[in-house]
Amino acid sequence: MSKTENNTEKVASLKRKFSKEHTWSAYLFLLPSVVIFVTFVAFPVLFTLYISFHEWPLLSAPGAERPFMGIGNYQRVLGSEEFQKAFWNTVYFVVGSVPTGLVVSLALAMLLNTGLKGMNFYRTAYFTPVVTAGVVVGLIWRWVLNGDYGLLNYALEWIGMQPVPWLDDTKYAMPSIIMASIWRGVGWSMVIFLAGLQGIPDHLYEAATLDGAGAWRQFRHVTFPLLFPSIFFVLVMSVIGSFQV
């Protein structure tokens, strides 16, 4: 073996050794995250799936027999009146909250993108409900929508309208929840839209203006196509979040 071949073999051996050490180091760094994921995500999901195919009373003894049910549990749940009512209520909530929240947040983002004075204040004000605890949000809206002394009914009486039992009537309860949900989540979508709008080059709007495009045509042919990735992301995340409610 020549001296050159010997050096090449040594270099290759060192590379293999370094690669193995680097790989094991990566595994060690990933190990805590993998353990947490397996313990608190993967195992509970798989064990829940296993339980769903068995008769599993919550108060049964640890060693009690749990016969295999197949899809019997799913048939009983999907065929129940309670599940169907809950499902359609969820669909009602999704259809009512997602499109409205999308339009409101986009409109606010476009308004703030016009160089409005105090933009940082408005951006903070609209985003504050997102980071507010759910209990606090619930207490605020329970006070606003209270049928006896609520702030919203007070405003309605002030303009000469009759008070509305927002939380006591099935006709108004879901719209009230949708309104509160939009109020809390609109800031998150607005920030994403605002970031997308600020990433659109100004010269595209200048070119559209020179071509005679008005505000609507600029939105249709410039803003919407370039903002579509942000819109699609917000739409998907909003649908997922709304169905989880």
Description:
With 245 residues, the protein is mostly helical. It has helices spanning 3-52, 72-78, 81-112, 119-131, 134-144, 151-158, 170-198, 202-210, 215-244. It is built from nine helices and no strands. Helix 3 runs parallel beside helix 7, helix 3 (81-112) runs antiparallel to helix 9 (215-244) and helix 7 (170-198) packs across helix 9 (215-244). The radius of gyration is 28 Å and the shape is flat.
Kindly list the characteristics that best describe this protein.
245 residues, mainly alpha, flat
Q: What class do helices, strands and sheet pairing give? A: mainly alpha
Question: Hey, roughly how much beta strand do the residues contain?
Answer: under 5%
Number of strands: 0
As residue ranges, the low-confidence spans are none
Compute the number of helices: 9
Helix content: over 70%
Round the Cα radius of gyration to an integer and report it. Answer: 28 Å
Characterize the main sheet: none
Shape: flat
How far do the termini sit from each other? 71 Å
The H-and-E topology, N to C, reads as: HHHHHHHHH
The chain-level mean pLDDT equals: 85
